[in-house]
TrEMBL record:
Listed InterPro entries: ATP-NAD_kinase_N, Diacylglycerol/lipid_kinase, Diacylglycerol_kinase_cat_dom, Lipid_Phosphate_FormReg, NAD/diacylglycerol_kinase_sf, YegS/DAGK_C
Name of the featured protein: YegS/Rv2252/BmrU family lipid kinase
Alphabetized PROSITE patterns for the sequence: DAGK
Example GO BP: phospholipid biosynthetic process
Cofactor(s) of this protein: Mg(2+)
Source species: Salinibacillus xinjiangensis
Length: 308
């Protein structure tokens, strides 16, 4: 059997549309597909754990219909089920993981491919270990960021206009509005990192993002040379940059040309310690919150993902 975990509100309702399209396909009945729709934030994680416990090895694959946030929840729900095959049918607004996987974009074609001709390849997720609660080790498929990106995402999520923009199917525009709102009041901060044992201090950090692959924020090539298979993490730091230059950088990052800016630092590493003397805003696969000091590594387990 195949289990579909669907976020109906992903991509401003695209999740629901894609699900309805897939449900009508003959393969859906033939291959004994069952769907579970998420009803609230965090539900994807609970559903993934429940279906894995309930159906175990009967499941040939869990197919996530949604965006990066839903995928993140499902992967965290499957933490103790590393052998489970997972595929994503992108239906979110950003879909950076699907972009990195180089998969087919048309939902039905992709659905057929996942069932008839899948390409299960290993993938090591990123993992964070919080200093205060070492037992909590959230996983990430894309990236984790401290600083400007997290504050922008939070501002957009909490804004009234996001709701209206979503109704008008202009969800990405709410992030652009939030970017301008935050940019001119945003205060850079000192940050201490230990990258593979080497201590580094940045005095006026605009943002620090650690990623598994090149894509970020809906197609920006944040670390253009990042390789999904390298087993390494990629760190991008923007330090001591003027507000106006940020706007310029924002346009160049879609082409991966920001890496030549003197304010941009990129490292490749296996372990990154982020030392914070107060809680800061962060984003993990686009979901926002507050966090104190933590360490980022690759999870040692290999997960099977449909990708090329
Ligand atoms: N029924 C629901 N109602 C409200 N929120 C939900 C529901 N189901 C899931 N969610 C939440 O929706 C949020 C957004 O999901 P997701 O990230 O998949 O879509 P997206 O934001 O459109 O895509 P992307 O992350 O690729 O930009 C997640 O935080 C998820 O927990």
């Amino acid at each position: 059997m195949y289990v579909l975990i669907v976020n109906p509100v992903a991509g401003e309702g695209r999740g629901m549309k894609v699900y309805q399209e897939l449900k009508q396909h003959s393969l859906y009945q033939q291959k004994n597909c069952r769907s579970f729709l998420t009803e609230y934030q965090g539900h994807g994680k609970a559903l993934a754990t429940q279906v894995a416990q309930m159906y175990g090895t009967q499941i040939k694959a869990i197919i996530v219909v949604g965006g990066d946030g839903t995928l993140n929840e499902v992967m965290n729900g499957l933490k103790t089920f590393p052998a489970m095959n997972v595929a994503i049918i992108p239906a979110g607004s950003g879909n950076d993981f699907a972009r990195a996987c180089k998969i087919e974009r048309k939902p039905v074609t992709l659905f057929k491919q996942i069932i008839n001709n899948p390409s299960w390849r290993s993938y090591r997720l990123g993992k964070i270990t919080k200093e205060t609660s070492r037992k909590q080790t959230p996983l990430f498929a894309n990236s984790i960021g401290i600083g400007f990106d997290a504050v922008v995402a939070k501002q957009a999520d909490e804004s009234k206009y996001k709701k209206y923009m979503n109704l008008l199917r202009l969800g990405m525009l709410s992030y652009l509005i939030a970017l301008f709102q935050v940019l001119f009041t945003y205060q850079t901060k000192k940050i201490q990192l230990v990258i593979d044992g080497k201590p580094l201090v940045f005095q006026h950090t605009f943002m620090v993002t650690v990623t598994n692959h090149p894509f970020f924020g809906g197609g920006m090539k944040i670390v253009p040379h990042a390789k999904m298979d390298s087993g390494r993490l990629y760190v991008l730091i923007i330090d001591h940059i003027s507000k106006w230059k940020v706007l310029f950088l924002f346009f160049t990052v879609f082409f991966g040309k920001h890496t030549t800016f003197k304010e941009v630092y990129i490292y490749e590493a296996s372990e990154i310690k982020v030392i914070l003397n107060e809680e800061r805003s962060y984003q993990i696969d686009g979901q926002t919150g507050k966090i104190g000091s933590f360490t980022i590594t690759k999870d040692h387990l290999m997960r099977k993902i449909h990708r090329f």
